[in-house]
Design goal:
globular, mainly beta, 59 strands, 45% strand, 4-stranded antiparallel sheet, 6-stranded antiparallel sheet
Length: 873
């Protein structure tokens, strides 16, 4: 029995795999975000609690701005926070259509959760409060609305019916006990403070007319801002009165009822540095002792459009929380300056581009040393000596000033030996472009771009690298296209930013793979009239010379149609094919092409009989996923493989009783996409692989115009054990390393899975041939071992995208994950075959070498003495 226990313990020890404590955070970093605050709750004895537009409830440290706790609610309207109350050390929230939650303010623990029994409504929903735990839910619609009163912790509630014929088209803002609505030339106030609600209609003040923006300040006060003017209104059961009218961009309220003070802020500009100036207005009628002041903000941030006072002005200089138009959250204290800043625009990333850092002077000297083959021996020797002296000086500088300290200096960024440190350029929905260092996660530069907000759709933003860092003395150039706004800038420093308004409406854009004489890749822009424009215009001759190789395809998701066009000598498009799925009742959900950065290392797969099965490597192949209602099977999803040059339908596959959300990866000659099986209530992965056969049509290049043969298609479906938020394949420099697929799960994990497990050629019964090829037998369920979780215990919430990029090491792929969290790490699909591991015992090797050298010296001395003695005999 004792022996059996020891055997069981030994077996369990073998199965355990873990991460050493010193390895955590060595090659990765993690940042937690909350999004743009819309509701703020603060008191002297509790942390700063905020509810954000990204459905996050979070608590911040007053002094540092660090996250104390964060609770991520449901996506979409189901998790939208509508009310935030403070009740005896607890936080009461109302989210979604009917969910009331009570949280502990110090810890963020959920105290209670209640789903209210409220009827469904097609109108707007607003939540008011007539007490610490008294709620009033207004279902606003025309011609009649409903008001539901209830208490937190009680199941009983009362219902009132309200006459609201003006509800359609009304712009409403909810306060504590009042609802203020603007419609046509009237202003309506719904008050719930008394036992019976009351609606009052007053003429709309000119300062509150559209397009002025209405905001709730606190208590029964509202502000109307627009065109640099600010009006403070008091809304009560008796009507609306004007409290203050004058210049201003924002206002915030401080102090208890009866001794309230309004801080009115104005955005200023001190030369090139943005600033904000506050003045105080007392509502009690007497003079105010509240301090005022003017504070300079960072040039990284845009103008401020909202503020919240956090401390009473009578006790000390108030702290004011500023929310910028670029979603930057800044805490200031009047008289002391900026206390801390949070870059919350990173919670809404639209586009990502990973850029190599420039080479250092020593790396350039090494390239020059081996690049000049015609140099004479004396010049080569002098060049070698100067290069080695520079390397020695760089080594000494690295010892004195570590790399992580130098990474914060944007003017001295250089590439490391293995090209694993890069610049991650981000475009956010708040209208901001940022540069993040991939090694530390620090924001090295940030530039607000006017015209990027209001937020465009994610697929309407084009971000590309026109010229990299390898073409000195030409600086790197990145291009950003959003609607009619075209922006060029330096992706390493964020400087040299130039914005241009295009005189046409772009519908598609892509970088030309060929560069001009300055190593700049032109941007080709297709407008709504079918004309092709080139940016910069100086490269138009290059585009015309390559017109026979240029093709465009556009997808209209609204009408579910796809169309392809060729380009003539005059840079005008000629329609060549059209795919209309809307006429068949289908809706396009996803369109995915191959990554332009991908490299295919092998053209085929060696079979067990030593023959070669050649891959169908069509670089113009596009995956189109569409779903449609089915009268028998409820839903069906179809995958189309379309040649974007000719419009030929290469392959299509229909799956019944499945629906989107669909995620997909498309690489080399294979693709994998996910669907949700409604019948089995599970996520399924479909793997498709295409081959030309054992004879290759063209071994040098693939051409869609030469009518390639119809490919052989292998297909298989697998069961995935959990839900997926995003998918991406690994990319390496040469494409030699085994491909892995990365999955961002709804549980917050980032999991890697060997693509061999998704091989559609996996046999049902293993044989000798499949064993020689290394094909595992087919099993429907895919395993997810915990050792494949890349982010170990760092949970990633609401992942919106995964970006993979190659490094200088073939074994290493750099991964950047963005959403409500930012996460960067390295993955090794085929292990670290081209570098030593972190736990390599260098000290032991050095000691062994020293011992061997000493032993050889001693034995040599002894051998010489013995030879001398033998010579004298």
């Amino acid at each position: 029995m004792v022996v059996l226990k020891y055997l069981v313990c030994l077996y369990l020890m073998i199965q355990v795999q873990a991460l050493y404590e010193d390895q955590a955070g060595k090659f990765d970093w993690h940042q937690q975000l909350m999004g743009r605050p819309q509701l703020v709750l603060s008191s002297e004895s509790q942390p700063l609690v905020v509810a954000t537009e990204q459905n996050v409830l979070a608590a911040l440290n007053h002094q540092t701005g660090a996250l104390l706790w964060r609770r991520v609610l449901e996506r979409g309207a189901a998790g939208q926070l509508r009310l935030l109350l403070n009740s005896d050390g607890e936080v009461v929230t109302f989210s979604g259509p009917n969910l009331v939650r009570v949280w502990s303010a110090p810890t963020g623990q959920l105290v209670s959760e209640t789903a209210l029994d409220l009827p469904e409504t097609t109108g707007q929903t607003f939540v008011l409060s007539s007490g610490a735990r008294e709620l009033a839910v207004v279902h606003l619609s025309s011609p009649r609305s409903e008001l539901h009163r209830m208490s937190v912790g009680s199941d009983q509630h009362t219902t009132e019916s309200l006459d609201t014929p003006w509800a359609d088209g009304a712009s409403c803002v909810s306060g504590r006990e009042t609802l203020l609505c603007r419609h046509s030339s009237q202003l309506y106030v719904l008050s719930v403070g008394s036992a019976r609600s009351e609606i009052t209609a007053v003429p709309l003040p000119p300062a509150a007319a559209a397009p002025a923006q209405l905001r709730h300040l606190g208590s029964d006060l509202y502000s109307a801002t627009g065109a640099g003017r600010l009006t403070v209104l008091r809304a009560a059961a008796g009507g609306v009165t004007t409290v203050r009218e004058g210049a201003g961009d924002m206002a915030c309220l401080s102090g208890p009822d009866g001794r309230q003070t309004i801080y009115v802020g104005n955005n200023k500009q001190d030369k090139v540095v943005p600033a904000v100036q506050f003045e105080s207005v007392s509502l009690s009628g007497g003079p105010t002792s509240a301090p005022t002041g003017r504070l300079q903000l960072s040039t990284r941030h845009g103008p401020v459009d909202a503020c919240h006072v956090l401390t009473a002005p009578g006790s000390a200089a108030p702290r004011i929380l500023l929310v910028g138009s670029d979603d930057a959250v800044t805490m200031i204290q009047l008289g002391d300056g900026v206390l801390w800043t949070r870059e919350e625009s990173l919670a809404s990333i639209l586009a990502v581009e990973v850029v190599d850092l420039p080479m250092s002077a020593n790396q350039v000297s090494i390239e020059e040393e081996f690049g000049d083959q015609a140099a004479d021996p004396i010049s080569a020797l002098l060049l070698r000596m100067s290069s080695q002296w520079g390397q020695l000086a760089a080594l000494a500088a690295g010892v004195v000033r570590p790399t992580r300290d130098r990474a914060a200096d944007v003017n001295h960024l250089t590439r490391d030996s293995f090209n694993t440190h890069k610049m991650v350029v981000l475009v956010t929905a708040a209208g901001k472009v940022l540069g993040v260092h991939s090694e530390t996660g620090s924001v090295l530069w940030a530039v607000p771009v006017a015209g990027l907000s209001p937020p465009p759709a994610a697929d309407s933003v084009v971000l590309g690298l026109q010229r990299g860092t390898a073409h000195f003395p030409h600086p790197p150039v990145a291009v950003l296209l959003s609607g009619r706004l075209l922006v060029t800038f330096n992706p390493i420093t964020g400087g040299d930013l130039q914005a241009h308004q295009l005189p046409y409406e772009p519908t598609q854009a892509s970088l030309l793979p060929h560069a001009d004489n300055t190593h700049l890749k032109p941007l080709l822009i297709l407008d709504s009239a079918g004309a092709v424009h080139v940016w910069p215009e100086s490269a138009e001759s290059l585009a015309k010379s390559l017109h026979s190789k240029l093709f465009f395809y556009t997808v209209d998701v609204k009408s579910s149609t796809a169309q392809g066009s060729a380009v003539n000598q005059a840079l005008e498009t000629v329609p060549s094919w059209r795919l209309d799925l809307g006429s068949q009742g289908q809706t396009i959900r996803r369109v995915l092409a191959k990554s332009p950065h991908e490299r295919v290392h092998s053209q085929g797969r060696v079979l067990a009989d030593r023959s070669v099965l050649y891959k169908y490597s069509n670089p113009n192949l596009v995956l189109v996923l569409a779903d449609a209602p089915d009268p028998v099977h409820k839903h069906s999803t179809t995958a189309y493989l379309v040649d974007a040059v000719t419009g030929h339908l290469i392959y299509s596959h229909v799956q019944r009783r499945v629906r989107c959300p669909c995620h997909a990866v498309h690489s080399e000659n294979w693709l994998v996409y996910s669907v949700y099986n409604e019948k089995a209530r599970r996520t399924e992965l479909t793997s498709i692989e295409l081959f030309e056969g054992k004879v290759q049509a063209n071994a040098s290049a693939f051409s869609s115009l030469e009518a390639p043969p119809q490919p052989m298609v292998e297909k298989q479906t697998f069961i995935f054990p959990t839900q997926i938020e995003a998918m991406r394949e690994t990319i390496t420099e040469k494409g030699i390393t085994t491909k892995f697929i990365m999955f961002a799960l709804t549980s917050g994990s980032l999991v890697t899975l060997n693509r061999a497990l998704l091989d559609p050629r996996r046999p049902l019964t293993p044989g000798r041939a499949s064993m020689e090829e290394g094909l595992p037998p087919y099993t429907p369920e895919l395993p997810l071992p915990t050792v494949n979780v890349v982010n170990y215990n760092r949970t990633l919430q609401h992942v919106s995208g995964i970006v993979s990029s190659p490094s200088g090491l073939e074994s290493t792929c750099l991964v950047f994950v963005h959403g409500l969290d930012l996460y960067h790490t390295r993955v090794f699909p085929s292990n670290m075959f081209d570098q030593l591991k972190d736990d390599f015992d260098s000290t032991f090797i050095v000691l062994v070498l020293v011992g061997l050298i000493a032993a050889s010296a001693v034995t040599r001395r002894l051998s010489q003495r013995r030879a001398l003695q033998l010579a004298w005999k």
